[in-house]
Every structure is written in structure tokens, then in C-alpha cells.
Design a protein that fits this description.
Glucose Oxidase, domain 1, 2 domains, 9 helices, LD-carboxypeptidase
């Protein structure tokens, strides 16, 4: 990706496609979804446009691909955003027409299972944006987190450098979407410890590649949207783990396999998102969550020490499934300044 194509940014008042390329959860949980739609309109000035599968659970891969094509082919649509993630977007990729997506590229926002589409677009040379879903970040109870809103606004409407900053507090404990009381107040947060730097004596700049670690492992197994390792020489890798909360040994094994493939050593730096350490299936207590995050960091460092010992890494960046969330350009420039402890992305 030597000459990335940055789609033209929309303006307030433009039409924005709202798609469910993975799961149709808006049909099951309308409260966070409708709240997210209202904020897109009221706070960001976007006119939202839904498609046949946006609220449909169980839509086929072909139907979801058709919605993606329709959104990109419509000249009045100037940006696209995913409602939420899921677990089978990889089955949509074979049905996508690259020529349709290239003909009128648009900024696409999503994360988690949307790593599939983000990296597919990147392989077409199109810059896209890892972050901000309608149901989670825009549908956050009480109010959008100011850091999330500022990053999303900058990525949506502006071009140029944007400095990421560590959040003074964060949260990853959720409340049920089917309880109206959930939306009466903002989620609880706890103090943040800032970023943790490894080999932070370097200054590097490269094109961003990455997403949710579990999804990348599936893409590698299916040989989808991933090129030869040397293609990514000098790129900046960013990774985060999902609410499925993979164990530290599983995180290590995925990275080990990336190392065995010759992929891990290609990247000039790694930005590792703060680990999601709570879910409804694994409601860990405070000490257990701290231990979970520490063990994941140790697993990542173990893999780096074995396969990319000179690579700079920054841990606990707010770029994934925790709150707040910063938008990362997939295919856009990322500058990591270790001595100054600064990270700057180009939207």
C-alpha cells in the first residue's frame, strides 16, 4: 500500500450508511441503536440511511454484501458505519466486488469483527477507520465519552494529524442493553495508569495495519486479506482483544504463529489496546481484571522478545473494546515517538 487512497470526508448534513455487515443486533436491542442514531444526527449532523439487513438477525453473507455494495454505489452516501461487530463477517468477504468499492470509496468506521472489512478495504488501497460503532460508542449510556466523540469527529470530518492521548480513566464493565435503567447514567470508570512503553527509545512512522487479534487469527487461517509478510515492512501494527477475553496463552500462540509466518518482525512498532477484562460470561472482580491485563501484556512481550526483540510497543492504548475508544486509521500514517511518549495518527 504505497499510495493509500483517502476517501473524501463528509460534511454535516451528508448521508451516512448504517450497516450490519456482521450481526443484526439492532433488531434485538433497539435502545442503544436508536440512541446511537440520534447522536449521529443531533451531535454530528449526519443523515443516517438504513439497509435491508441493518436490523435483521441471521442475514446471509450474500445479503450483507449486497448492502455494502448498495451503500458504496450510492453517490449520495458519503460515509459508512457499522452498527456493531459479530463473529462471521469473514463469510461476507468472498461476495464483495472490489470494483464497486473502489469506484466511489468512502470512509468506513467499525471494529471488532469489522476488522475483516477494514483490512479488505486496506488491501484495495482504501484508508478506513478502526473504531466507533453505532450501538456501543455512539449508543453509550448517559453520554458519549468526550475522548471518543472528539476522535470520531476528527476522523469523520477532518484530514491531517491527530494526537492520541492517554485517558485518565477507563471502563470495561457493561450493563444490560435490555434494561431501560442502563441508559439513565454513564458507565462507571476507574483511574487509568496511562500507557506503558517497551523499547521506547525510537521514533517510527508507518502505515497502520491491524485490528482485533482474534479476527486477524481467523483471516490468517483462511488466508484472507493478508499478503506476504514483507509487504508490511515498516508498517505500524495495532492490536486489541475482544469481549471473548482470550487467555494469555492463546494471545501468545496467535502472536507466535504470526512470528513463525515471518509477519511479526516486519512491523516497526506495536500499539496494543487495553485488554477487555470483563464480560457477562466472565464478570471478573477488580483484582482479577488487573491480573488478566497483566498476564496478557506479559504474553505479548514474550512473543515480541522471541520474534521481534527490537520492536517498540505501547500498551494500554484506548483503541479497542474498552471505554473510551480512539479511532485508528487502517492504511493511514501513524507516528510513534518513544522519547516524547507521543502517538500521532493521520486521519
Amino acid at each position: 500500500m504505497t499510495h493509500p487512497l483517502r476517501p473524501a470526508k463528509p460534511r454535516p448534513g451528508d448521508r451516512m450508511a448504517v450497516l450490519s455487515p456482521s450481526s443484526g443486533l439492532p433488531g434485538l436491542f433497539p435502545m442503544p441503536y436508536e440512541l446511537g442514531l440520534r447522536r449521529l444526527h443531533d451531535d454530528f449532523g449526519m443523515e443516517t440511511v438504513e439497509y435491508p439487513t441493518t436490523r435483521k438477525m441471521g442475514a446471509t453473507p450474500q445479503q450483507r454484501a449486497a448492502d455494502i455494495h448498495a451503500a458504496f454505489a450510492d453517490p449520495t452516501i458519503r460515509a459508512v458505519i457499522a452498527t456493531i461487530g459479530g463473529d462471521d463477517q469473514i463469510t461476507v468477504l468472498p461476495h464483495l466486488d472490489a470494483d464497486v468499492l473502489r469506484a466511489d470509496p468512502k470512509p468506513f468506521f467499525g471494529y471488532s469483527d469489522n476488522t475483516n472489512l477494514l483490512l479488505f478495504l486496506r488491501e484495495l488501497g482504501i484508508v478506513s477507520y478502526h473504531g466507533c460503532s453505532v450501538m456501543v460508542e455512539l449508543g453509550r449510556p448517559g453520554a458519549m465519552h468526550p475522548s471518543t466523540a472528539d476522535s470520531f469527529r476528527a476522523a469523520l470530518f477532518t484530514s491531517g494529524p491527530y494526537e492520541l492521548t492517554p485517558s485518565s480513566s477507563y471502563g470495561d464493565v457493561n450493563r444490560p442493553w435490555d434494561d431501560p435503567r442502563t441508559f439513565d447514567s454513564e458507565p462507571e470508570t476507574e483511574p487509568g495508569d496511562g500507557w506503558s512503553w517497551h523499547n521506547g527509545d525510537q521514533v517510527v512512522e508507518g502505515i497502520g495495519w491491524g485490528g482485533s487479534l482474534e479476527i486477524i487469527s481467523w483471516l490468517l487461517m483462511a488466508d484472507r486479506a493478508v499478503r506476504a509478510p514483507e509487504t508490511y515492512a515498516g508498517n505500524v501494527l495495532f492490536l486489541e482483544t475482544t469481549e471473548e477475553m482470550p487467555r494469555a496463552d492463546e494471545v501468545y500462540r496467535i502472536l507466535r504463529n504470526m512470528g513463525e509466518r515471518g509477519l511479526l518482525r516486519q512491523f516497526s512498532a506495536l500499539l496494543m489496546g487495553r485488554a477487555k477484562s470483563w464480560s457477562f460470561e466472565q464478570p471478573l472482580g477488580p483484582q482479577e481484571r488487573e491480573r488478566f491485563r497483566r498476564q496478557q501484556r506479559e504474553a505479548v512481550l514474550r512473543a515480541l522478545d522471541e520474534y521481534a526483540p527490537g520492536t517498540m510497543a505501547v500498551f494500554d492504548v484506548d483503541l479497542g473494546h474498552t471505554d473510551p475508544q480512539l479511532v485508528i486509521p487502517v492504511g493511514g500514517a501513524i507516528r510513534v515517538d518513544g522519547p516524547a511518549r507521543r502517538i500521532t495518527v493521520t486521519y
